[in-house]
Write a structure and sequence with these properties.
CATH architecture of the largest domain: Sandwich
Number of domains: 2
Structural class: alpha+beta
Strand order of the largest sheet: 10-9-12-17-14-15
CATH class of the largest domain: Mainly Beta
Shape: globular
Number of strands: 19
Largest sheet: 6 strands, mixed
Mean pLDDT: 85
Order of helices and strands: HHHHHEEEEEEEHEEHEHEEEEEEEEE
Distance between the termini: 43 Å
Bound molecules: copper (II) ion
Length: about 400
């Protein structure tokens, strides 16, 4: 696989072994439902109850085994620290949304896998038009690459060849295309041209320049295709590769101009000269990293790949309580070892600009991740970096 979908979370399979044990347990006189709860680890039950207590959810049921759900997933340990990974898929069967018309968003894992050793990358991008929650209780009919907005993070070395297979399924309504900013090619033929529903095409390009790059659908009206979710990040590592760090995350900032609930986004509102978005988000969902903080170890090296996908608003990327000691923005570099001892507080990213940003947290605690264009913080562009146990008093 040459692309990395950050949303890959294994679905749980209930364990038959555990179910049999439950049947022979001392509480066999009770119903099977109660025996599951009695045998479940208390911490698992508590996490489940907490998840199910969120707005719009039903009371938890124990008709399948919460512990086995834990132990049959790739995450294995069902702890408070990783309950986010279970919240949208694995725990849903225990307490489905009380009102199915209210959207529950799908959490996006911000971790970035390392670059593969391959020098040729076969990337399949499938245009998918689908309803997606962009905030708790708010969904829109988005247009996506591979079913998520943003699309997959694509990470390559300098000089690698990227072979793209773009598919527009016949079930779609619209033409789509893809424009890789990390590539060099004419706009009006070959790679960037649009394909209709039912069509596919292949093309390739070479990653000649390092950086954090945008890709997006360029089909007219391009504004509407970007505003509806058709964008993603390409990371081209610099010559010699990036130095290893302790944590790596990818954040794509973008804004939404919503139409009616469950409908398509508003092109008219996005197209205004003084466009005013309803939501400004990191990785496609308002406040998802406030709800589920990004966890790091205190004193360790943390690297963020940040892209402002727009379509139209500027970003001033800032993490409260930290100083960026390395910033590589659009090829311009600030190094920790610079002779003047300079640091960076916020990285300005116009639409389509990207940066590599490094920092170290000074102590355990919470560090808000924001755009310092503060009118957008209340619209969803706010997350939390949780360092250590999140409690500075320890
Ligand atoms: Cu499109």
């Amino acid at each position: 696989m040459r692309y990395f979908n950050q949303n890959q979370i294994s679905l749980a399979t209930p364990s038959l072994t555990f179910t049999k044990r439950s049947l022979y347990s001392l509480v066999g006189m009770f119903s099977l439902i109660i025996s599951h709860q009695a045998n479940a680890h208390p911490e698992h039950v508590n996490i489940l109850k907490e998840w199910c207590s969120e707005a719009g959810r039903t009371a938890p049921t124990f008709s399948s085994d919460v512990c086995s759900t834990c132990h049959n997933t790739s995450n294995y340990k069902f702890s408070t620290a990783n309950k986010e990974a279970f919240s949208t898929k694995n725990l849903d069967p225990f307490c489905p949304s009380a009102n199915p018309t209210v959207s529950v968003y799908e959490w996006r894992d911000p971790k970035v896998p390392p670059v593969s050793s391959s020098r040729v990358h076969n990337i399949e991008l499938v245009a998918q038009e689908k309803q997606i929650a962009i905030a708790a209780g708010v969904s829109q009919q988005l247009w996506t690459f591979n079913g998520t907005a943003p699309g997959p993070v694509i990470r390559v070395h300098l000089g690698d060849t990227i072979r793209v297979h773009l598919v527009n399924p016949a079930t779609n309504k619209l033409s789509h295309s893809v424009d890789f900013h990390a590539s060099e090619m004419a706009w009006n033929m070959g790679g960037m041209t649009s394909i209709k529903p039912g069509e596919e095409k292949f093309f390739e390009w070479k990653a000649n320049y390092a950086g954090v790059w945008m890709y997006h659908c360029g089909t007219p009206p391009t504004l509407h295709h970007i505003a509806s979710g058709m964008y993603g990040m390409v990371i081209v590592e610099p010559k010699g590769g990036l130095a290893p760090v302790d944590h790596e995350f990818a954040l794509v900032q973008s804004e939404f101009y919503t139409g009616s609930e469950g409908g398509i986004t508003s092109l008219a509102r996005a197209a205004k000269g003084n466009a005013s978005p309803n939501y400004v988000v990191f990785n496609g969902v308002a406040f998802q990293y406030k709800d589920h903080p990004i966890e790091v170890a205190t004193g360790k090296k943390v690297r963020f790949f940040v892209l402002n996908a727009g379509p139209s608003q500027d970003s001033a990327f800032h993490i409260v309580g930290t100083i960026f000691n390395r910033v590589i923005k659009e090829g311009v570099q600030l190094n920790p070892s610079n002779t003047g001892g300079y640091g960076s507080q916020a990285v300005d990213l116009a639409p389509a600009q990207g940066a590599i940003i490094e920092l170290t947290t000074a102590e355990d605690g919470l560090y808000p991740i924001v755009t310092h264009a503060f009118n957008y913080v209340g619209l969803g562009a706010m997350g939390l970096l949780k360092s250590g146990d999140g409690d500075p008093s320890h």
